[in-house]
Write a structure and sequence with these properties.
- It is a single chain.
- By secondary structure, the protein is an alpha/beta fold.
- A 5-stranded parallel sheet has the order 2-1-3-4-5, sandwiched between helices.
- Helix 4 links the parallel strand 4 and strand 5.
- Helix 8 packs across helix 10, helix 8 packs across helix 11 and helix 9 packs across helix 10.
- The longest helix has 14 residues.
- The N and C termini lie far apart (about 40 Å).
- The model has no long low-confidence stretch (mean pLDDT about 90).
Length: about 210
């Protein structure tokens, strides 16, 4: 098996690639972000399977998956995540992924899942598969006020404070205060990181 593993956490890359190489007898090439993964795929692909971390730099969640499938339509891709809600797994498969692997999965189960996907089958863990839908009100959104959700939606769309203020008919300084509050609540360093955290949590931007 030839596997391309793309994840921005070095420990995750090392641990998973070690599992696959020692227990699964796979040849694993790793990449630290989405752009590097696409370059590696262009230079050394195709692979039996490409594992893409849902929240690594450049991935932008399912946007990266859609882009990768467009560029490499014959390549098998699967999503790897430690924090994405279950519905992301369903959406990923709907987009064309061959599977979804939680980072919490044990070594033996991980290897079996990878072998299953390499064989051409779609893999989603049973507990994720059973959860066909989640309540609209998630733990993530519960911590936010309606106005904060509206501002966060604007951040996810890449809008400036001025654009968000115009859309919500508010003062720009008010939006700036909401952005500051959002960053504090989400433990984000800036507005870009806040948007990434929201996307990884499955926040649906209007």
């Amino acid at each position: 098996m030839r596997i391309l593993l793309a994840d921005d956490h070095e420990m995750v890359r090392d641990t998973i690639s070690a599992y696959l190489e020692t227990e699964g007898r796979a040849a694993v090439i790793t990449a630290p972000d989405y752009v590097s993964a696409m370059k590696t795929l262009t230079a050394k692909g195709p692979f039996d399977l490409v594992l893409l971390d849902f929240n690594m730099p450049g991935m932008n969640g399912l946007d990266g998956l859609t882009d990768a499938l467009t560029r490499f339509p014959d390549q098998a891709f699967a999503i790897l995540s430690g924090t994405a809600p279950n519905r992301i797994a369903h959406q990923a498969v709907d987009c064309g992924a061959i599977g979804f692997i939680p980072k919490t999965m044990g070594a033996k189960s991980l290897i079996n899942a990878v072998r299953f996907m390499v064989a051409g089958e779609t893999y989603v863990p049973a507990n994720v598969l059973a959860d066909q839908g989640e309540a609209t009100e998630t733990e993530f959104t519960k911590q936010l006020s309606l106005r904060e959700r509206q501002v966060l939606s604007g951040l996810c769309h890449g809008r400036s404070n001025k654009e968000i203020a115009r859309t919500l008919d508010l003062q720009e300084v008010t939006i700036k205060l909401h952005v500051r509050t959002l960053c504090k609540k989400l433990n984000a360093k800036n507005r870009t990181q806040a948007a990434l955290i929201a996307k990884d949590a499955g926040f649906q931007a209007d």
